[in-house]
Design brief:
The complex is a heterodimer of chains A (357) and B (356). Chain A is mostly helical. Helices cover 72% and strands 2% of the residues of chain A. Chain A has a two-stranded antiparallel sheet with strand order 1-2. In chain A, helix 3 packs antiparallel against helix 10, helix 4 packs parallel to helix 6 and helix 12 crosses helix 13. Chain A is globular and about 60 Å long. Chain B has a domain of 244 residues: ABC transporter involved in vitamin B12 uptake, BtuC, CATH 1.10.3470. Chain B is built from 16 helices and no strands. The chains are: A mainly alpha (357), B mainly alpha (356). At the A-B interface, helix 6, helix 11 and helix 13 of A face helix 7, helix 13 and helix 15 of B.
């Protein structure tokens, strides 16, 4: 019985995914459904890079970092600036992209360290004010980006490795992709952008890296213990404050990498910070606050729902009582993920894996 | 100053003699004096500058103050939630913006009269705050802040969506809302000024009445110690919901007035920066004091104006930095810091005067 209770989150997740797949394959033909599924995984990977940091930081230090969306956005801007930097113009675009990823991640990690050390640390005795402060940072950060880069959005080119356009394109399978570097790969006869597959792989890599860090290293043990009871950890003679900073750095770095990875297909503009913060919040509500696997599951579910919703509004919705199909804009799909959050709040306020209050 | 209404009730019910002078002194409390000063302000300024009422400087400063009054109501509504009930919402712009949009759409597209529009704004924001409250009050603390922010972002996205361009004007906002001629903020500035002043005073008295009522005391109890209030036997969820819907309706009305003043409703009224405004006004003035919220609104409006004149379009950046500095160094705001350190400051002041 107890085992059944422990397996409850897994069962619910499984049921939701199966229902989703049924709806997806019932509504669309298989090749469309598969590409929606892959788009969902792509978005899920990006949401994961946001929600993982948010959730870890909250679990350990009880700080909900509203500036996380700003870190994501700034990561994208910094990555783009480096990608287009004149002094790197000689290098090929793949190398510049890798540099941008590293710089976006490392830059945001450093910024996160500075933020934690200078602004958040003095306020541990006044937790509400920490939240007010991070909200203010979002605002200031957005204005600063506006001042430096202006209000117009940018497009980041896809690196050459994922942007081939030869005679053999789109690639029929993965092996020929590695030979031709096509911009898209045929999956069940439908072309899917290869760059998005890279984003999925990157998300998976980050997921396993953090899992390894949490399960196999000493730091990970301390973090997990800190999430349970940070005062006890401190009482055992471990400098928890330093671990706080480290976790903040990891979270900020993940957000920065996510921002750079998102840039080539979402674009770089002033709206992406709020947009990804919103979806990451919804992921966390679904997955449960302070749980790393919860954040990952939540991100995956929100990503899938977004992709499904996008496809649905684009292909048109026709309910039984309607005479005509209505076509909606993707904004409606974006907004409707909040409804998922509302449903979760109604049924299970603590989320799938969250601690019960 | 925050207790004068309850005091007045006490004195009248006791029916004691020789309370007349105290009553008179009570009547001329700083709040009443401020209200009288505000009522006299346009005429005084007009007399001083020698310009007629509906032109030049008097017109400009009346507009400035009318905005302060509107913002003050918005700040008070937020303070009811954050200061008196102790729940931190990051989605307050939702009600402000909804009030503005409902008023705008009904005036412009449905061509309703003002009175039914006001009732509609009250109805819609009441319904909305009940719905959002029922869902988001299931969680607590920063979690609540996050959920309310998500709800307000949803409406922000919907207001921007191109699907409803016909009604909301999408990202351009709802432009040129027709306002009844007698209330036009451009032609009948003096009328508008007094309407907003009356609106602000009325809402202040209402909020104060609520705060001093038995329900208000329960809200305070929830702020101080929610489990304890629960143990005493109060259904804190219902009380929090009452606090939230009251605050939502007040914010909605303020949003409606703001739409009438600007003659438009735009997406920024629903955005995070509008919520930050509410936070800033409340914190600057002092959390948990209605007078502080009014003070905060005045300070914010004048600060915004001054920053805009001095630094041009980059002023929100400085604004945000000021917000962060206040959060870091002045957590209890002007009124709160004053109340906490009154004796210290007065002693220092007296000592300085004694020396001089």
């Amino acid at each position: 019985m107890k085992q059944l209770k422990n397996a409850q989150p897994a069962l619910i997740t499984g049921a939701v995914v199966i229902l989703f797949l049924l709806a997806l394959f019932g509504r669309f033909e298989p090749k469309v459904a598969v590409s929606v599924l892959l788009s969902g995984l792509t978005l899920g990977a990006l949401y994961f890079m946001m929600s993982a940091g948010l959730s870890l930081i909250f679990g350990l230090m009880d700080v909900l970092n509203f500036a996380h969306g700003f870190l994501f956005m700034l990561g994208a801007y910094v990555g783009l600036a480096l990608f287009n930097a004149p002094f790197l113009a000689g290098l090929d675009s793949n190398l510049r992209f890798v540099l941008a990823l590293v710089a976006g991640g490392a830059g945001m990690a450093v910024l996160g360290a500075i933020m934690e050390w200078s602004l958040i640390r003095p306020l541990y005795s006044r937790p509400i004010y920490q939240v007010l402060l991070t909200l203010g940072l979002t605002f200031v950060g957005g204005e600063a980006i506006k001042a430096i880069w202006g209000t117009a959005g940018f497009f980041m080119p896809i690196p050459a490795f994922f942007n081939g356009n030869g005679p053999n394109c789109p690639s029929p399978d993965f092996f020929s992709f590695f030979k031709d570097n096509c911009s898209s790969i045929l999956i069940l006869g439908r072309a899917f952008p290869s760059y998005r597959l890279f984003v999925i792989a990157l998300g998976l890599a980050m997921f396993f890296a953090v899992i390894l860090l949490l399960r196999k290293t000493r730091l990970g043990i301390i973090i997990r213990a800190g999430v349970q009871d940070s005062e006890m950890v401190q009482a055992l003679g471990i400098n928890v404050r330093r671990v706080f900073t480290l976790v903040f750095v990891i979270g900020a770095g993940l957000a920065g990498i996510g921002g750079v990875a998102a840039a080539p297909f979402i674009g770089v503009n002033l709206g992406i910070g709020q947009e990804f913060l919103l979806q990451a919040f919804i992921s966390i509500v679904i997955g449960g606050m302070g749980s790393f696997s919860g954040a990952a599951i939540g991100a995956l579910l929100v990503g899938l729902a977004r992709a499904f919703g996008d496809q649905l509004v684009l292909s048109g919705i026709q309910l039984p009582f309607m005479t005509e199909m209505i076509k909606l804009s993707p904004s409606i799909a974006r907004a409707s993920t909040v409804i998922i959050m509302a449903i979760v709040l109604l049924i299970r306020p603590a989320g799938l894996l969250g601690k019960k209050e | 100053m925050d207790d004068d209404i309850s005091d007045q009730r006490l004195t009248t019910s006791n029916q004691q003699p020789k309370m007349n002078t105290t009553n008179l002194r009570k009547f001329f409390s700083p709040g009443v004096l401020l209200a009288l000063a505000m009522a006299a302000f346009p005429f005084v300024l007009s007399a001083l500058t020698g310009q007629p009422l509906n032109t030049g400087d008097p017109k400009f400063w009346m507009g400035m103050l009318a905005q302060v009054f509107i913002l003050a109501v918005y700040a008070m509504s937020y303070d009811l939630l954050m200061g008196y009930t102790g729940i931190l919402s990051f989605g307050h712009a939702l009600f402000f913006g909804t009030g503005a949009y409902v008023a705008g759409i009904l005036l412009k597209h449905a061509k309703w009269d003002l009175l039914p529009v006001i009732l509609a704004v009250i109805g819609v924001t009441l319904l909305q705050s009940l719905l959002v409250g029922m869902l988001s009050l299931r969680v607590k603390g920063v979690y609540f802040a996050m959920v309310t922010m998500a709800f307000s972002q949803m409406f922000f996205i919907l207001a921007e969506a191109s699907d409803f361009r016909e009604y909301t004007g999408a990202e351009d906002g709802l432009q040129s809302i027709p306002v009844p001629a007698w209330l036009s903020p451009t032609n009948e500035r003096l009328t508008f000024y007094f309407v907003t002043l009356a609106f602000c005073i009325g809402m202040y008295l209402l909020a104060k009445r609520v705060v001093n009522s038995p329900t208000g005391k329960v809200l305070l109890a929830i702020r101080e110690n929610e489990p304890r209030a629960q143990v005493i036997g109060y259904n804190t969820f219902i009380y929090k919901l009452i606090g939230m819907s009251l605050s939502g309706v007040m914010a909605g009305l303020a949003g409606m007035m703001n739409a009438l003043w600007n003659l438009n409703a735009n997406t920024s009224m629903l955005s995070v920066s509008t919520t930050i405004n509410a936070l800033l006004m409340t914190i600057i003035g002092g959390v948990g004091t209605l007078s502080g919220a009014i003070l905060g609104a005045g300070f914010l409006q004048l600060l915004g104006y001054w920053l805009n004149v001095t630094f041009g379009p980059r002023w929100p950046l400085l604004f945000g930095i000021i917000y962060i500095l206040i959060v870091l160094f002045l957590p209890y705001g002007f009124i709160g810091t004053w109340r906490a350190n009154k004796s210290k400051i007065l002693a220092r002041w007296n000592a300085a005067r004694g020396k001089a």
